């Protein structure tokens, strides 16, 4: 399969956005190279002056100035390179993170949270170094090239002696890039796999402890370690071999230049200073060997950029330009189908749910309740068909119109804000203390939030919340943002019956202005809804009032677990 030209785009963007700093790196590298190139000729002149007994002050001062200039520009170059790397990394991270958030839950599902974090943290930093390395590499090529020209100008026969070994050196570098690129790619992939498994294990630490499978889990996480080691060693071997080959070839090239220059001095066609300059230029021209390290860094950076590009290639949902007309949250599913890996998990040919009322969605585990809720809130787009809110297909709505109209709460909400207050107020600009407390009261969360070490100001990591309490914080967050459609996907499952009934007072309170879609596991929750959508194997088996459906033993079986 032909390899896609991945990774080019992030690197090109990095170079374009950091153009000023990149220019500074280029300038400093060129200036340092120019000073370094001028030095051997000046040294040669100083030598000749000393040997001939002339005043050598001028050439010696010249040598000092050139040395100082080379040191200054090298230091500036190091500073600009570090700044360019840091800025490019920050931009790459921001851009990729924005894309991940825009792509929604599917992004984490496809690549896994651990792998995503590894790409955003480690790979972004490696890719961020690429523009500076590329500029340094391009500018660095000028030093050997300039040295070669200077060698021709000093004595063309020495340049011919040098040129004879050049094709071998070029071949060496080419082989290195190929082998190094392959091992870098495999190394980064193994790293991502370990990171992914590690995050899974940390999230499932309780399950692992309860199952007593710590050792097995550790072995599973470290499974890709031999591959990581193999590829790491291979990278070092490739670099070591190339460096050794270069270390053998380069002195030979320098020696051949020195030999030819020596013959020319013996023939009286070159001065001793000229011989010295020719030898120094030969050393600078063979500086191409230093490329191996830089080239390695660039190859690794490009493979890291490939991995960022894979993230940037994840599809993001398109949002249209439409606003919603006045309405009360009427939902309509038209031939909506959800497929995962070729399997149809939900198929809803026609389903109309009136606005201003409460709909409960019930069904056995795996019947498609969460998939229906995800379609209604556009956390997922149907593989075929469409979903309309108050007559407008969801993809036609602007992002703001959609997220203002639809509010969601989940079974296992993440506490995303810095404090409990911020978590409840998430997504609402300046909600005010009273609104947050009111929402927490409605979600039966006010009592336990008040008892936290710093109340609403408690940082989330220091808020020891039970599963049911987290759910109530999630509900409070949903209640802070009243839209025209409220979707609760299993968001009451962790609440005891009394608390669930209390929250139900708010949830099921007749309100003609907005609709509610509630994934329900309890018969009493379904009984309070205006209608029930009963799902079975991804299809709507029946729609009707709970009392009516309850006459069917198969419907009663859905609640057979006695929740
Ligand atoms: N991202 C996914 N990839 C593959 N299959 C999926 C994915 N999401 C859901 N499914 C499958 O779709 C089916 C319906 O899942 P869904 O979560 O909608 O069921 P549910 O009725 O909400 O179940 P539960 O009550 O257990 O939460 C299941 O068989 C599930 O395995």
From TrEMBL:
It comes from Streptomyces mesophilus. It is a multi-pass membrane protein. Residues 331-562 form the ABC transporter domain. SUPFAM superfamilies: ABC transporter transmembrane region (SSF90123), P-loop containing nucleoside triphosphate hydrolases (SSF52540). The chain crosses the membrane at residues 64-86, 129-153, 159-177, 244-266, 278-299. It comes from the Bacteria. InterPro entries: AAA+_ATPase, ABC1_TM_dom, ABC1_TM_sf, ABC_transporter-like_ATP-bd, ABC_transporter-like_CS, P-loop_NTPase, Type_1_exporter. Residues 23-300 form the ABC transmembrane type-1 domain. One of its GO terms (molecular function) is ABC-type oligopeptide transporter activity. It is found in: Cell membrane. This is ABC transporter ATP-binding protein. One of its GO terms (cellular component) is plasma membrane. Keywords: ATP-binding, Membrane, Nucleotide-binding, Transmembrane, Transmembrane helix.
